[in-house]
Amino acid sequence: MNKPRCGWANIANPLYLQYHDHEWGIPCHDELTLFEMLNLEGAQAGLSWETVLNKRENYRLAFDSWDAKKIARYDASKVESLMQNAGIIRNRLKIQAVISNAKAYLQLCSECGSLDAYLWSYVNGEPIINRGERIITTPLSDQISKDLKKRGFKFVGSTIIYAYMQAIGIVNDHARNCAWRHSSLKES
């Protein structure tokens, strides 16, 4: 018998099911995943999450397994090479944003210790459990977005940041009838 899932989870796509069941809404403290997801959420702007999710492995290859130190050194020729990579979203602004984000990330880590410490300090280390309603932004996503922009991050508007908060488990927005609503709290 199939367990009930959030309505957005495309059950026809195994990657989507894996993402919904084992990642989305589960508190994440892995620095590499936090950096990856911040950039992937930015890549999603104007597109569906499924489009980005289907290209996730290509992004890992194209962006040196999300090694921020390497990405921060990318030059114009690397950008041009990425623009030719059909495995990722070939949007110059989004590609350049990843490079800007790598630089801003390294600076943030030197100031705050880690992206993990920075992000989870906003919620005192405890995920926010919502009622499973459709939310696009919150005062908290507005606040984090504003601060990240001030720090030089790109593609971090409040809507993107709220989706990011959901993805990394700062917010648990699993639907009330979703079998993963409560189990995601236990997998941190």
UniProtKB/TrEMBL annotation:
Pfam families in alphabetical order: Adenine_glyco
Organism, scientific name: Undibacterium macrobrachii
Which InterPro entries does the UniProt entry name for this protein? Adenine_glyco, DNA-3mA_glycosylase, DNA_glycosylase
Which gene produces this protein? Answer: tag
Annotated protein name in UniProt: DNA-3-methyladenine glycosylase
